[in-house]
TrEMBL record:
It comes from the Bacteria. Signal peptide: none annotated. This is DUF2512 family protein. The chain crosses the membrane at residues 7-24, 30-48, 60-80, 86-105. It holds the Pfam family DUF2512. The lineage of its organism: Bacteria, Bacillati, Bacillota, Clostridia, Eubacteriales. Keywords: Membrane, Transmembrane, Transmembrane helix.
Amino acid sequence: MNKTAAALLVKFAITFIAALIALSLIIPNWWWAVLVIAIIGTAANYFLGDLIILPTYGNVLASIGDGILAALIAWVVALVWPVVEITIIAAIVYAVIIAVAEYFFHMYLESSEEVQP
């Protein structure tokens, strides 16, 4: 497994754990619904946050953008999938956890020459 694939797996794990905390412990969502949100959020944050925003605007804006995007994705999934519930508190907690985790993840990406952002 190359370093980029390993970094994406770590990114997914971070997103899934953050989603479990915010979307399963704060409000009662099924783990498989949280898994779907984490998969969509990981893909969106990778393509938009890591490939576009991070190289152009830097770590802080990319991390904030990743947190906001993750919360928006969870909110949209809850709107279109009746089995998923979300509250404003859960969305904020999810956004903050993602933003903080992504800040450190981006520092790793920028310091590693073997990982292609």
